[in-house]
Amino acid sequence: xxxxxxxxxxxxxxxxxxxxxxxxxxxxxxxxxxxxxxxxxxxxxxxxxxxxxxxxxxxxxxxxxxxxxxxxxxxxxxxxxxxxxxxxxxxxxxxxxxxxxxxxxxxxxxxxxxxxxxxxxxxxxxxxxxxxxxxxxxxxxxxxxxxxxxxxxxxxxxxxxxxxxxxxxxxxxxxxxxxxxxxxxxxxxxxxxxxxxxxxxxxxxxxxxxxxxxxxxxxxxxxxxxxxxx
Length: 230
What we know:
Blueprint: E1 5-6, E2 34-37, E3 50-54, E4 59-62, H1 67-70, E5 78-84, E6 91-97, E7 103-109, E8 116-117, E9 124-130, E10 138-148, E11 153-161, E12 164-165, E13 171-173, E14 191-193, E15 204-210
């Protein structure tokens, strides 16, 4: 099994590096498998972006001036999780960009005190908008538990933690091929939730099969369907 280790080197903020119908990348082995390093991802956190902010009325929280809240440090981003303090199913819009600098938006409905995560991975979070208020409500927002991927993944094959193979795979969500993307469709490159504990110390890598195919509209390729920002 041929494996190529890969990690991003330079993806500057505010430059959209998405390549339509991308067919080739030097760090992807299209004839076999590719091993992706995620470094040592931090644990999920329910409130490290917003902590119990008032949401009794429709509200937008602008994060563009807060680098610590805005930036996700995992190389390809991760999902965002949200929770309220009271029972409500209000829609929340998360706006930002993926690791390529593509602007994107994801809509999620709160489930009260039960946390809910976006179906897309964010590298940067620019704003959080609570569409409908609820009396006495607050909203907390933080890093989710699933990691973003660099390329369009169709299969996860093996997880490696601290240099040793893990007996079981984590939760893999294949790339969503729906074209065009919507605020509620899944990530166009897929997601991976490791079985290894995320604690900022465990070094995690995963072996994937990536695909560079395009659809009948010549959309897709290694970077997946273009993200939606509306």
